[in-house]
Batch of 4 targets.
Target 1
Amino acid sequence: MPELPEVETIANGVHDRIHGRTIRSVWTSNKPQTFKTPPDQIAEALTGSRVDRVHRVGKTIVVDLSRRRKTMQFLIHLGMTGRLLVSTPDTPIPPHTHAILTLSGGSGGIKELRFVDARRFGRLSITETAYEGPGSEPLTISLEDFIVLFHHRKTPIKAALLNQSLLHGVGNIYADESLFRAGIRPRRQVGRLTRAELGRLRTALVEVIRHAIELGGSSVSDYVDADGVRGFFQLEHRVYLRTGEPCLVCGTPIQRIVIGGRGTHFCSRCQK
């Protein structure tokens, strides 16, 4: 599933290509799993609306729209295999395309925003209230709020990082990578981490996420950006999916365990 850096990369790329344009028409596949809002309501709300901004909240892409002084938001959750592509109308339509927004205005002629999702775990919806996401934003949360967020919890720190009601946007890749850089074992109980350890973890998490955004995210499965281009942060992974390979710091083989049903990668020597 695309995590915060991948969703941020896609949102920024889509914004650069379609903000200021007007949605001329909407086509949907009408596949029921894909739509939290009925597809006919989505089409009616989007048609004639102006795209003011495309941004990220947690793992959700948010499209701010306006029409006749009325504002709303189009929410796009990519699920496991979702892609959001900006194409020209003459570009072949990929299999498993479930929504096509045709946009006018701007340079380069007519554009299409296409939502493609092979497994149909993604979700499309409309809201008239500002979407704030389920948890706190990891890139802006203060140290004090970060500490309070995890205070007295008894779950493993890896499971807590994946809890979207605490920090939204963090997934398996960036939880493993930030715990390695902070020197913290993923099974450590959250409530027993010291203030210094939580401070290191917050710093590591922010640094990992920002660096991943700079490199366009991690392409370890189906992820591509708005132009269909893969990211490069997977080349910077120090533990994720490196089971049995030597640690890049100490040479100890990277281990894989399961926490909360999720594969978890760590170095038994570097992480305490």
Target 2
Amino acid sequence: MNILKFITAGSVDDGKSTLIGRLLYDSNAVSHDILETLERQSRNKADGELDLSLLTDGLRAEREQGITIDVAYKYFSTTRRKFIIADAPGHVQYTRNMVTGASNADLAIILVDARQGVVEQTHRHSLVASLMGIPQIVLAVNKLDLLDYSEEHFYKIAAAYQELAEKLKLRNITFIPISALAGDNVVQPSANMPWYLGPTLLEHLETVEIEPEAASDAPRFQVQYVIRPKSNEWHDYRGYAGSLRSGSFRRGDRVLVLPAGIETEIVAIEVNQVQVEEAFAPQPLVLHLAHDIDISRGDTIARFDAQPIVSRDLEATLCWMNERPLRPGDRLLLRQHAATVKAIVKSIEYRIDVHTFEHLSDDKLELNDIGLVRLKTAQPLVFDAYKQNRHSGGFILVNENTYDTVAAGMLEEATELEPG
């Protein structure tokens, strides 16, 4: 049974948490003890209905304010598929949390309040989905029960979003009219919208085809730990442990150890302490190489015929996540999985206007801004352009004094920068 990882996003009070609660409740994915707790916590509601948003809004501050602050993860399954859900916050100041949830998503459900239509956060979340390379988008037009299930309103919003999607080059979009509170078209078809002939939300989630990116991309393995027992029993053992981020390796493959650029051969592959002929992403494994090479944590092993980019001069799209603005000259730590290098901001090329998606000249990025920057690293970084391989093209920036994560980035092709 395959797994679909999806994220819900939208503006404040669009009903994201209620939608997930409805999915879990109507698909019988809520255990009896959680259901009893839900009933107890919902007693204060005037209408006596279950407050399904409580299934995801676990923080006390969220329950008091009626908003989602953190990214809440839920897991459920049907007879057709397993699901991992990330419920992202709606407030603009928590856009950074949406980036976190979107980084590994196969699909994004972007909610729109039928009464409000396409708003600023719809633009912002769609921009993030586009930049993060999420292959499938569902626009769920929610709260249609408050507009008498108006077909006209639904198609008007769908047309407005289609214009936005064309600007962002979003291709695979499915439009579904729903009421998360009433349950219309979430798990069960709605008798209130006979004009809609498409699938329910759950039917779409169960059947949507997702490309297994990690297996089809060029093979990328990053060393997390060098295993040298140095015992009498394992005197000559030398293995390189880590996760295969993308692609596959076979015993006998010619590979390069990067950034050093040393050529060697894979002589053995271990998965769960058993030698195998071939390994596939995202398996954790141990590689054994033909030559004793000076290899450290963060080094990359790539197949000789599918080499990544190796450069100190980088161009990247950033989502800035810190209250202190980013400016040219700032020094940060760049972390790409197990690799950590020092970096300096050489320039800010532009900031993206979330309303029009225009590129605006600016000398800084402020909290939740998205823009293109040029970086120079102290040591070479091994990567692919994010659009070609998001498993090796993503990174985070960390404040080198506080170790706070201050940005999420997507690498472009290497660029030529001025010396220094």
Target 3
Amino acid sequence: MLKKLDIFIIKKFLGTFFFIIAIFILITIVFDVSEKIDDFLGNEAPVSAIIFDYYCTFIPWLYSILSALIIFLGVIFFTSKMASNNEIVAILSSGTSFNRMLRPYMIAAGFLFLVSIFTNHFIIPITNKTKLEFEKRYYRDDLHIEIGSNIHRIIKPGVNLYISNYGSHTNTGYNFSIQEMEGETLKKIFSADRIVWDSLKGKWSAKIWRIKTFNGVFEKELKGESKDTLLPFLPEDFDDKPNSIQTMNYFEISRFIEEEEKKGSNLVKRFKLELHKRTAIPFSILILTVIGACISSRKVKGGLGMHIVYGISLGLVYVFLSRVGEVFATNSGLSPVFAVWLPNIFFTAISFIIYKRAPK
């Protein structure tokens, strides 16, 4: 059963969080409207579509981005005020242990953690479909022009595909090559400066193409300007995968990763980053709640202002570590799982140190 202390702290926790995040969301929307209103009016976007198809779907995404840090600042804010009013001293002097005082913090944080997990994995992918469709129609139509660079795929065992760059607007791939292997032996390379999908013929057209076949030490080469050819893939195999990640729920991303790993796709790392990030960010709510409660429960010179400075500083470190981890995972061999969870690992250690120094 929850006691008066639990209800008191949970009310302060949730009340402060929802008030602050509502203010942040409102301010963000005002700035976003001022930036995009000319594009909306220029593309004749209906007011109902702007409100319901864009901003109502924009809010869940914004909530997921802000929630962890807002919770952190909210905990620091109301706990620091309690410390300034000697409420923390009164609670601990009554015989209540610091661990017992943390319980309602963790109950509220656990509730918001579950809300955030469900929102990230299942709600936001749904709202993103509507949001992206609105942006494509009324804001910008170049969301899916450039699919990616350095695309590697295993079409089937022994058949490897490489495309330097691929654009979905023109269904054109550049610096294309497809290699056929027999065991460890290279048997054939079909390459072209450019391949273009011909929708009328249902075939790919290879421009400035070359075919090299290998038979032991002998090599045979054919060349040409243009050649219609049936290749073992379609434009749909490349269609806006990097952007569609935003509309996939947990199960869809997991299936996609499994399928792309079989093909040797270079999209796997990006999708693994997204999948684990959707869980790691909500998990940080629990860690940051402990840190926020511990650093702000002690009455210090400077009061609330000093606690807010500590909070913002730690928040910036968290964001910095998150970005560094993603960059290293994308551009090096760092594991996506480790990259995404690195800030939580670091801040778990920090929370343990701060907890040991908290007033008992």
Target 4
Amino acid sequence: MEKPDLKFWQISNLSFGFFGVQIAYSLQSANISRIFATLGADPHSLSYFWILPPLMGIIVQPIVGSLSDRTWTRFGRRIPYLFVGALAAIIVMCLLPNAGSFSLSVGSAMLFGLIALMFLDTSINMAMQPFKMLVGDMVNEKQKGFAYSVQSFLCNAGSLVGFLFPFIFTWIGISNVAAQGIVPNSVVYSFYVGAAILILCVIYTVAKVKEMPPREYALFHGIAEKPDKKEKSDFITLLKKAPRVFWTVGLVQFFCWAAFMYMWTYTNGAIAHNVWGVTDVKSPEYQTAGNWVGVLFAVQAVGSVLWAMAIPRFKSHKTAYIVSLLLGAAGFISTVFIHDKYLLFASYLLIGCAWAAMLALPFTILTNALSGKNMGAYLGLFNGTICLPQIVAALVGGSLLYLAGGVQVHMLLIAGALLLAGSLAVQLTVKK
């Protein structure tokens, strides 16, 4: 039996909470390097702080996926995990930016920040993964590409809001400077407001989305309502049985997510040095550059929203993927040669094209190759192709920065080269 077509608002409701989750994620992405640099971290050590987000993802998301495949409550299969993850994220979002405000030593403040970051990443991953699963569970193959494009749109809209918060709060008069080792109020208040929006969005999703009960789910996916207890479904067995696209698209993912890890880690220092001419994290110019990074990431989100509308017009996923990554590579490489903060808008619009493809195309390609059986587990395992490259990139980031002469903008050049490699991997491994 085929799943029925869903109305636009039904598809939108499946992903609406992602708007709030992405605000939390974008606040983390744009401000973690800034927060830890403010607390006193050495630039060559910044990449190590970024190991925690993907490490938590590679652990949490497969577990959430596998457990939710076997869960059914009156609230649904995926939604309970979504709600608990969001609730935990809200608490930690109120603690993390205050790491330097508790009269702790520099070392203790960074340890507190690391622990808070670990819990924030765990909770964000727990809240994020169910949205991808809901689309796989409830949308038919004909509408799935559109549904993930809607999710991409809401994701980028959330990013736009989150990235702009510190800039907006500074503009309305909230302080963007603070005592040494303390995060400015413009950032702290951004996390507070982001947490409030997150819970409102998740409550809306919980109220509006009704998941398929087990019998209906089994009927539409052509699987048994109760799993065969004799059949192995551990992670190793599932990986052995994974469809070919799991691995081929995973290779592309490796290059793409390593590239964006370097963008998140080094853009603050790169822009401060390349545009403002400063490297001192205590200077007001460095904090101003930090706000501008939020603006640039917001421009990237706008580029992603616009390009997400163009992707469905391509005749093949493969062509859309290649073109998107080539545009993103051009954006990264151009940042090395641009010293005007407004000209950087063009660079980050191009980078947004790659981001739009990374959010929509891999999951469209993969879920079309999966049955409903073990959908959550496979999507959780596929998250490893997002997390593992970030862990590798974080581990070698400090060494690469030394080889790059300590100039952080050179790390964005490396990011461009990684996207070029990703476009080549699409050409070699993705069939259509």
